[in-house]
Amino acid sequence: MAMEGVLLGLAAALCQSVSYVGSRWFLVSRRGGATALLLASHLVMGILCLVALPIIGWSEIPAPRKFIFPLLGSAVFYLAGQAGLFAALKRAESSSIAPLLGLKIVVLAAIATLFLNQRLAVGQWAAICMCVLAVTLLGVSGGSVRLTSMLWLGFAC
User: Could you read off the pLDDT of 41-63 as tens digits, one per residue?
Assistant: First the structure.
């Protein structure tokens, strides 16, 4: 079971890396920029969800009043983050931006500790420190990233 998780994690990382390269290609070669990419990618995801819908079923879905506001909030912040990522990718190479996305772990830890009053274990703090170290090492090897790209990436995180 653990090996399945590792393999699926590696497959997800591979797909995510390929998506950064594809996003960068779309942004520099197509008209419409980040808005067109956001619309096109969500159109594809919507079609895939409609195909998967009969497989998933509806029996366990709660009443909309229980989830509609968190769902809308999640959608707004997700779309804002995606727009920020696409804006960063338009201004810098994907090989420079992708490693810096590890900073989202630091942002999640800050949200959990500051706003949700979560106490992180020593191992979790060690993992956060390793993320910062990895981002630093990969960022140095990836070349410099302009300030505007870093600001968009910070917004995305």
Answer: 889 888 988 888 788 766 777 77
